[in-house]
C-alpha cells in the first residue's frame, strides 16, 4: 500500500500586513541627464512624466536598500524580525549570480534561518513574489513572508542612450504577507510573451567579459524598443488588469486605488481610460519623482500612496506589473 501524504495546513487566506520603502539620498533631476543626451526637460516630462529619480551611492547596495525597506515593512506589520518565515527578493540588478541576495538580507534583518531566494521577472517581479508569498501562507510552508522588490538600475543605464537614459531609478520596496480571516489578495493573472523578449533586454551577456576583453566592449545596459513596449503595455495590459478585476469579483467603481508598475505616465493614463476608472480612485504616480525602478516600483508606490493619505489601510487596490520577458502579473489586494 502506498503511503498517504499528510495535507498541508496553512491559513485560509493571506493579506499584506505591512509595507516599507527606501529611496537613495541622491536625487537626480532631468537637467543632469541632459548632460549626456540631446534632449530637453520638456521632452522627458512629456514622454515619461519623470521629473527626478533617485540614484544609489556606493554604500546603497541592493542588500543595504532591501534591509532598510524590510525593517520598515516588518515594523509596519507589527512583527519582530524573527517572525519572518521566508524571504523572496525580486531583482534584476544584483550582479552576483550566486548566492542569492535574499539569504544575506534574511540574515541581516534578523529573520533567523528561513528559506530565502531571488526571482527574476523584470518589472513584474514584485507581483510574482506577492503571488508566491500568498501561496506559501495558505499552503502552510510559512506564516509570514517578506517580499522585496529592489533595483540599482543606474548600474545598468546607458547614460548616452537617448531612449532610456532618463527612465531608470534605484530603490527598494517591501511588504510582509501573512494570514488573513478574509480574502485580501485576489487571484493572480500572470503570464509571459517570450516572442517579444527582444523588446526589453540587457545589451550584452555577462560572459563577454570572460573572454578577457572588457576594454573593447561597453558595460551591459538595459535597452528597449520604446514604441513596441508602449503599444504592448497600453493595449494588452489593460486587458490583463480587467481579468484580475473579474477574477477577484471586483468592478472598477469598487476600487479605491490603482497601483500599476511605474513605467511611463502616458501608459498609466491610457490604462485609466481603458479601465474606465472613476475619479475617486487614487492612482499611483510615483514615477514623477522616483523614475522607473522595475521590481521596486509597485511597493514604493504603494508606500507613498499610504504615507501621503491618498489611500488608506483597508482600501481595495488593483496592482499590475509588466516588463522584460515580456512578463506580466496583476491582482486585487487589500492595502495594509
Automatic annotation (TrEMBL):
Gene3D superfamilies on file: 3.40.47.10
Residues the record marks as active site: 123, 261, 292
Keyword Lipid biosynthesis: yes
InterPro entries given in the database record: ACP_syn_III_C (IPR013747), ACP_syn_III_N (IPR013751), FabH (IPR004655), Thiolase-like (IPR016039)
Ranges where the Beta-ketoacyl-[acyl-carrier-protein] synthase III N-terminal domain occurs: 117-194
Main location class: cytoplasm
Region ranges (ACP-binding): 262-266
Domain of life of the native organism: Bacteria
Reactions performed catalytically: malonyl-[ACP] + acetyl-CoA + H(+) = 3-oxobutanoyl-[ACP] + CO2 + CoA
Keyword Phosphoprotein carried by entry: no
Localization of this protein: Cytoplasm
Residue ranges annotated for the Beta-ketoacyl-[acyl-carrier-protein] synthase III C-terminal domain, each copy included: 245-334
Pfam families: ACP_syn_III, ACP_syn_III_C
Pathway named in the protein's UniProt entry: Lipid metabolism; fatty acid biosynthesis
EC number(s) from the headed UniProt entry: 2.3.1.180
Top EC class for this record: transferase
UniProt entry keywords in alphabetical sequence: Acyltransferase, Cytoplasm, Fatty acid biosynthesis, Fatty acid metabolism, Lipid biosynthesis, Lipid metabolism, Multifunctional enzyme, Transferase
UniProt xrefs under NCBIfam families: fabH, PRK09352.1
Notes on the domains: The last Arg residue of the ACP-binding site is essential for the weak association between ACP/AcpP and FabH.
HAMAP family: FabH
Similarity field: Belongs to the thiolase-like superfamily. FabH family.
Subunit record text: Homodimer.
Record's function text: Catalyzes the condensation reaction of fatty acid synthesis by the addition to an acyl acceptor of two carbons from malonyl-ACP. Catalyzes the first condensation reaction which initiates fatty acid synthesis and may therefore play a role in governing the total rate of fatty acid production. Possesses both acetoacetyl-ACP synthase and acetyl transacylase activities. Its substrate specificity determines the biosynthesis of branched-chain and/or straight-chain of fatty acids.
Protein name in the entry: Beta-ketoacyl-[acyl-carrier-protein] synthase III
Annotated source species: Streptantibioticus parmotrematis
Gene (name only): fabH
Amino acid at each position: 500500500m502506498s503511503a498517504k501524504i499528510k495535507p498541508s495546513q496553512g491559513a485560509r487566506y493571506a493579506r499584506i500586513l505591512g509595507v516599507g520603502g527606501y529611496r537613495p539620498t541622491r536625487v537626480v533631476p532631468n537637467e543632469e541627464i541632459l548632460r549626456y543626451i540631446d534632449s530637453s526637460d520638456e521632452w522627458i516630462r512629456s514622454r515619461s512624466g519623470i521629473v527626478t529619480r533617485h540614484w544609489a551611492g556606493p554604500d546603497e547596495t541592493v542588500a543595504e536598500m532591501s534591509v532598510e525597506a524590510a525593517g520598515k515593512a516588518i515594523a509596519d506589520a507589527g512583527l519582530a524580525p524573527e517572525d519572518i518565515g521566508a524571504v523572496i527578493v525580486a531583482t534584476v540588478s544584483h550582479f552576483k549570480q550566486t548566492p542569492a541576495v535574499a539569504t544575506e538580507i534574511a540574515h541581516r534583518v534578523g529573520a533567523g534561518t528561513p528559506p530565502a531566494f531571488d526571482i527574476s521577472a523584470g518589472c513584474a517581479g514584485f507581483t510574482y513574489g506577492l503571488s508566491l508569498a500568498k501561496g506559501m501562507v495558505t499552503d502552510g510552508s510559512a506564516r509570514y513572508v517578506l517580499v522585496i522588490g529592489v533595483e540599482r538600475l543606474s548600474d545598468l543605464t546607458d547614460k548616452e542612450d537617448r531612449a532610456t537614459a532618463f527612465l531608470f531609478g534605484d530603490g527598494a520596496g517591501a511588504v510582509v504577507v501573512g494570514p488573513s480571516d478574509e480574502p485580501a489578495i485576489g487571484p493572480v493573472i500572470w503570464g509571459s510573451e517570450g516572442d517579444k523578449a527582444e523588446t526589453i533586454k540587457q545589451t550584452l551577456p555577462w560572459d563577454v567579459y570572460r573572454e578577457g576583453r572588457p576594454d573593447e566592449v561597453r558595460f551591459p545596459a538595459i535597452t528597449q524598443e520604446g514604441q513596441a513596449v508602449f503599444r504592448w503595455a497600453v493595449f494588452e495590459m489593460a486587458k490583463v488588469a480587467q481579468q484580475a478585476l473579474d477574477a477577484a469579483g471586483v468592478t472598477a467603481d469598487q476600487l479605491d486605488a490603482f497601483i500599476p508598475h511605474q513605467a511611463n505616465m502616458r501608459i498609466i493614463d491610457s490604462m485609466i481610460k481603458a479601465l474606465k476608472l472613476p475619479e475617486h480612485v487614487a492612482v499611483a504616480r510615483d514615477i514623477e519623482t522616483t523614475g522607473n525602478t522595475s521590481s521596486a516600483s509597485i511597493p514604493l508606490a504603494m508606500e507613498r500612496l499610504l504615507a501621503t493619505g491618498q489611500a488608506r489601510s483597508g482600501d481595495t487596490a488593483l496592482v499590475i506589473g509588466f516588463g522584460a520577458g515580456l512578463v506580466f502579473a496583476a491582482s486585487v489586494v487589500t492595502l495594509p
